[in-house]
Amino acid sequence: GRRALPASLPRKEVLHDLPAEQLPCPDCGETRRRIGEEVREQLEYVPASMIVLRHVRPKYACSSCESNVVIAERLPEPIEKGLPGPGLLAQVAVSKYVEHMPLYRQEGFFRRHGIELPRSTTCDWMAATADLLEPIRKAMLRRILLSRVIGTDDTPVKCQDPRTGLITEARLWEYLGEADHRFVVFDFTPDHSAEGPTRMLEGYRSGYLQADAYSVYDQIYARGIVEVGCMAHARRKFYDARKADPERSHVALAWIKRLYEVEDAAKEEIAAATARLIAAAGAPAEASIERELAEGIFHRSRQERSVAILDGFEAWLESAADAALPKSPLGEAVGYARNHWAALKRYVDAGYLSIDNNAVEQLLRTIALGRKNWLHVGGARGGRTAAILISVAQSCKLHRVEPWAYIRDVLERVSTHPASRVDELLPDVWKPG
To answer: What's the confidence (pLDDT) of residue 68?
Structure first.
């Protein structure tokens, strides 16, 4: 049947009552009394509206000597003496970095409400909002660096120099923590060098890093971080080679499919074991217990089945390397898999590791959708603003927190909240003020 509408939504009652002439009983003439009601809920949309908050501070003075004037202190605001309230700042940020509505389109939206807000103004607002939320991003990064495994990837974005108008290709890098530290942080760099990952992962001293085979990560692995490869990257290369060498490409794809079948079977076993655990306890188990159960099943399944499949796949790669031309599509796919084989099979070492980096790539889709709409970032400042606000919005979504409500509330509190307790404002523990 139809799902119930959320109880948190406000209700407005619309009464459909009988006219007075229908109330008398047709048999005896007595007025019929109300014995119950039939209720049907309908979802309606009320267009967004703008309001003006008038901050009034009465002044007081002595009535006798007409001196000693006092007035209440001005309350902290996100932008000191600025026009926008926290709700408006949150709306502009969410519209651009969650709904992918560029500022020039929002300019038209505000104009329909009779308000002129040039995109240059809202651009400055977003930079100021990012400055206020930067402590949140830093706190999330500190938590991510406590993870046993971190996933990372990058994607290109166009960057326009505000002075010259020239457009260059910059990068947005993503860093995703594990289940206990499930935050995602983005970082902007003007190029594709190792400076960004090296700076962001400077405090990560032990654990696994799952990434593609880009060479910028080599100096991070050199200090003791263990590399985990992405089987989806390897599969993609064999998939791209299927037209040039369909027979051998499909053999490789079949090997990889067997590895993913083990993962799917383990997920089904985890679901069944979790259901039995809940039934026995009569209530949902703690997240740590369910996670430990899942990791144990993954590790056992991989050791019992995946290791043997990987050994067979490795032997096939050796034979395929002798038969395929090195520069052919298949030869390059085979070469990629062989060159990174140790990293590709490392996921079988622990149940908390993943066979691929797809969780990271899925979060990068918000960048891909965004850049089709806002097209480019405005220099290093615009890139930094985008990285901070996307980090906060996407981390909210990971914890099923509504981004607008979160950003609005944090903007109201961040100016007066003690810096030493910034972790209390993170999306995983946040509660509206």
So the answer is: 84
